[in-house]
Amino acid sequence: MDYTGCYMFKSRRSAGVADASFYDSADGITELPDTIDLAHKHTVSGAGETTMDGLEFGSQSYTMSSKDDSFLFPRSGKLHESTSEEATVSGKMATSESRKDRFGNNGTSKASGCRTGAGLGAAGYGRAVEILDTLGCLMTTLSPDGGFTSRATKGTQISILAFEVANTVLKGASVMQSLSEDSVTYFKQVVLPSEGVQNLISSDMGELMRIVASDKREELRIFSQEIVRFGNRCKNAQWHNLDRYFVKLESENVPQKQLKETATVEMQKLMTLVQRTTDLYHELHALDRFEQDYRCQQKGNETSNKVEKGDNVQVLRLELKTQRGYVKSLKKRSLWSKTLEDVVEKLVDIVQYLHVEINISFGTSDGGELSSESTVNSLRLGPAGLALHYANTIIQIYGIVSRSGYVPANSRDALYQVLPPRVRLALPNRLRTSSIPRELTIDQIRSMMEKTLKWLVPMAINTTCARGFLRFSEWAKSGTERVGRGPGRPDVIETLYHADKTRTEAYILELVVWLHHLVSQSNRPANVK
To answer: Is the pLDDT of residue 513 over 60?
Structure first.
C-alpha cells in the first residue's frame, strides 16, 4: 500500500504524519513549513505485524528555524486516526493545489498537532506509531546554534537554601557598594590619608592602594567561592566548576559600561528578592509561634471542657491558616521559588563586573605585590594573629588614662601582664632613660597621651568590631536596607590587621612610659601625706 505524507516538527510534545495541508481550529487551513513525502510500503500479516520497507526523503534540502527551539524531534507522540471523510477532503485539497512534486511550498504552521492520512491498516498504523515514538525519544534537541544538545532539564529549586543564597547576595552587594564611586573617593581622600593608617600601616599611597585592592580581591574570592558551591548544586552542568572560569577572568577584557549596566540591574533584581526573602524569614518565625500556640491550646482544650477554650482554638486555627497562606505567597515571590541556575547566572555576571571594577579603582593585580619592605623586613599584626591582642592592650591603656584620680594597683598589674614581650623587655631601660619634666601636671600628661590615643584607639576599637560580612540574619533583624559598611563595621584597612608590628609596639611603649609618669603624679599627693 502506497501512502504519501509528511513529518511536521513543531514542538517538544507533538510530531506525526500529516497530509500536505491540515485544519487548525484557531487559524483555519495552514500549510506546513516544509513538507516531506514519505514513500513506504507496509505489509500486514495475519497477526497484524508491519514492516517499513523504505523511507525516502526528497533530495531538496529544507531549513528548520532555530528560534525558540520551535522545531524539535519529539520525545513522544501519538498519531490520531482520521476518518475517511477527512482523508477525502485532504486529498482534494492536495489535488487542487497541484502538489505533484516531492516538496511542498514553504510556510509557517501555527498548529500544535496534525491530522494523519487515511489508508493505513489498523495494525500497520499502530506499528508505525511505535516506531516513530521510539525514534523521537532517541533524538536530541536542535539547539539555536544548529547543533544537537541534550534536552534541557528542569532547574534546581532553591527552596530552603533561600536564606543561604540571600546571605551570598548580600556579600556581593556589600562588595559592589564598597566599589561605588562615592566609597572609593572616601577611601582615597579620608581613610588612606588618616593619621592611624599613615603611622601604623604605611605612608606610601601606592602601597596602601595595593593593600586595599588585595583586601577587595579577598572579599571577592569569598563571594565567588559561595557561587561555585551553588553552581555545583545545579542540575545544568554548564554551571559546574565555575572556579575554573573565575580564574580566567584575569585575561578577559569586557566593556566596562556594558558590564556595569548588566550587573547593576541584576543586583537590583536580586536585592528585591532578598528583601522578600527577609519578609519570609520573619513570617516563618511568626508561623512557628502560631503553631506552638495552637498546639498548646489543643493540649489545654483536651484537659478542659470550657467553651471559651474551644473558641480560642478556633481563632488560632483561623490565624494559623491565614499565616500559612501568607507564607506560601511569600515563598512564590521570594528566592524560595527561584532556581539556582537563574540566580547563579546573575551572580556570575556580578563577579565579572566586580573583578574589572577592582582593577579600575585600585589597580590591576599584575603590580599588586606588596613591597619587600612591608613583607620581609616587617611583620603585619593580622597575619601574625596579634591584631586583637594589641587592640585590647591599647583599649586597656585608654581605660586607665580616662580615669580621674587614683589608679588601682591591680589595674597596673593587669596591664603589665598583657604587654607584648618586646615592650616588657624594653620598658625598664626606657623608664631609666626617659626625661619628662617633673613640673608637668596630670592634665598636661593626659593631653600628651591623647595626641596618640585619638587616632590609635579608634583603630583598636575597629579591630574588636571587625567581623567581616554582614550576615543575612543580622541584616534581617536590623530592619535597614543598607548593605555596605556602616558604623561598627569598618573596613580592614581601618583596623590593626595591616599594622606594622614594630611601629605599633613603639607607640604602645611610648604610651606605657607616659602612663607611668601619670600614675606617679596621681599618687604623689598621697605619698606626701
So the answer is: yes
- Check if the beta carbon of residue 346 is closer than 8 Å to that of residue 299: no
SS3 call for 38: coil
Lowest mean pLDDT among 158-162, 199-203, 226-230, 298-302: 298-302
What does the alpha-carbon distance between residue 11 and residue 203 come to, in Å, rounded to a whole number? 67
Residues 196, 495: contact at Cβ < 8 Å? no
Residue 223 makes CB contacts below 8 A (sequence gap 6+) with: 168, 171, 172, 175, 351, 354
CA distance 20 to 400: 98
Element (H, E) at 287: helix 256-302
Using CA atoms, how far residue 167 sits from 163, 259, 468, 508, in Å, is: 6, 23, 13, 39
Q: What's the half-sphere exposure (Cβ side, CA atoms, 13 Å) at 100?
A: 2
Do the beta carbons of residue 256 and residue 360 sit within 8 Å? yes
Q: What are the φ/ψ torsions at residue 283 (nearest 5 degrees)?
A: -70, -30
Spatial separation of the C-alpha atoms in residues 165 and 173, rounded to whole Å: 12
Please give the model's pTM, rounded to 2 decimal places: 0.66
CA gap 344, 168 in Å, rounded? 11
| Inter-residue contact 161 to 280 (CB < 8 Å) | no
Contact criterion met (CB below 8 Å) for 174 and 483? yes
Highest mean pLDDT among 335-349, 370-384, 475-489: 335-349
Nearest-5° Cα angle at 341, 149 to 218 = 120
3-class state of residue 151 by DSSP: coil
The whole-angstrom separation of Cα 499 and Cα 387 is 8
| Cβ–Cβ < 8 Å for 464, 396 | no
Distance between CA 355 and CA 402 in Å, rounded? 45
Write down the H helix ranges in 139-234: 162-178, 181-186, 195-200, 205-232
